[in-house]
Amino acid sequence: MRRNLSVFNLVSLVLGFSFLYAPLVILITYSFNASKLVAVWGGFSFKWYGVLFQDDQMLSAAWITLQVAVMSATLGTILGTMTALVLVRIRRFPGRTLFTGMTFAPLVMPDVIIGLSLLLLFIALGIERGVMTVVLAHTTFLMCYVSVVVTARLKSFDQALEEAALDLGCTPLSAFRLVTLPIIAPAIISGWLLAFTLSLDDLVIASFTTGPASTTLPIKIYSSIRLGVSPEINALSTILLAIVATGVIGASVMSRQAIRRRRRDETLASGD
């Protein structure tokens, strides 16, 4: 029975990972295709990477997208962390229910509604659409995801550590900077990476809030594939996958190192 169960689990695992990652493997493989036809292998070549780096419009869209992702992820992480601190540390305050609902509403609200409402807001305020409007739009929903991640970490945080730091003479700000922040740092980093990835991936909200001179990469790719998928798109997607994978691996290594340092410090403290 256990053997059959193990075989079933193994087959399910292989099928699941194949369903998730086989398209990515195919995309990466055909980014090195020398042929113009996406589905016909014409030999191994870096041709389309050279074509990509000569495409000024695609490079401009990629640069704008990276700018938007970094700025919106950073703002969303700061606001999301502050929101999580308020929700976890301040149990009762006037309007808490409304504040909580408004914080998590973008998580379940359709992107079309968010994009349209922000477009109408920018028009009403007379704000010209461009990079900053896309950053503000992305920050609106990215902070919600960050607040969920950081809230989960704060709920398991032992506040006695902060109280001990206060008893030893730290100010509340110093206690947060020296005790709380290093402990919740892995959650903050994870929230930033999640926000960065979601910003890179967004198409709907950006299409409502962008301007003519601030086309993001998903919009550019979407408009390009309407005329047919080019191996240049495969090359671009491969580069983006490499960037995201490098960031995720780097964050994972940093988190593990931080956990090991904390455990070592705790062991030394308990030994003393």
Task: Describe what you observe in this structure.
This protein is mostly helical and 272 residues long. It has a single domain (55-271), classed as MetI-like fold. Helices cover 79% and strands 0% of the residues. Helix 6 (131-155) packs across helix 8. It is globular and about 70 Å long. The mean pLDDT is 83.
Key phrases:
MetI-like fold; mainly alpha; 0% strand; 272 residues
Question: Tally the helices: what do you get?
Answer: 11
Q: What is the CATH homology-level superfamily? A: MetI-like
Main sheet, how many strands, which sense, barrel?
Answer: none
Q: Please identify, by name, the CATH architecture.
A: Orthogonal Bundle
Could you list the spans in which at least 5 consecutive residues all have pLDDT below 50?
Answer: none
What is the domain tally?
1
Strand share of the residues? under 5%
Return the CATH topology: MetI-like fold
Helical content (DSSP H or I, runs of 4+): over 70%
Estimate the mean pLDDT confidence: 83
Give Rg in angstroms: 23 Å
Structural class: mainly alpha
Oligomer: single chain
* Element pattern in H and E: HHHHHHHHHHH
Secondary structure: number of strands = 0
